[in-house]
Amino acid sequence: MAILNVSNVNQYYGGSHILRDISLKADFGKVTVLLGRNGVGKTTLLKSLMGLVPIRSGQIEFDGLPIQASTPYERARSGIGFVPQGREIFPRLTVEENLRMGLASKPAGTSIPADLFEMFPILDEMRKRRGGDLSGGQQQQLAIARALACEPKLLVLDEPTEGIQPSIIKEIGRVITRMAK
Ligand SMILES: Nc1ncnc2c1ncn2[C@@H]1O[C@H](COP(=O)(O)OP(=O)(O)OP(=O)(O)O)[C@@H](O)[C@H]1O
Ligand SMILES: [Mg+2]
Fold this sequence. Notes:
Bound molecules: adenosine-5'-triphosphate, magnesium ion
Number of domains: 2
CATH class of the largest domain: Alpha Beta
CATH architecture of the largest domain: 3-Layer(aba) Sandwich
């Protein structure tokens, strides 16, 4: 069953037509990969899914409901976790505070799921360190953990392995496939 169903999406930056009649499906319980050369519009498509850039036409269905008119926070609350290209963690907040930001859509007092620290032990070690003081690969793990904190039904990752060493790429791959099961 498709958790995500995108049909005939068109998007423009000013007069530049970037997404031209894009359609794609992502099935529940599977990993779906989007490939394309630099500048082709992958990030733009993922931002459109989250409502971070407006689309001009087309349908985006998540978990059976149209979401193209929803705000980004409504989409996050409905169960889409987003890991943006370049991580965009909060550099001045600690690792733990960054993870708490991922819980913003949950009731106050919800604790950080313990299995996040099992998946990414480095984050447990560095709980009190500021996000901006982590290495690039550690920040990527933090960004993924932050998105997983709210237990999303769909996890959208933009370039999750960009600039990351092979052993951490394996680790990220292991976590993502485990989450999809
Ligand atoms: N905010 C913006 N305003 C205007 N044009 C933009 C903006 N963001 C991206 N673009 C342009 O839209 C096109 C698609 O960019 P996008 O970032 O979606 O590509 P991408 O496939 O993610 O590339 P990469 O592999 O380098 O990450 C590019 O031509 C880019 O220059
Ligand atoms: Mg991109």
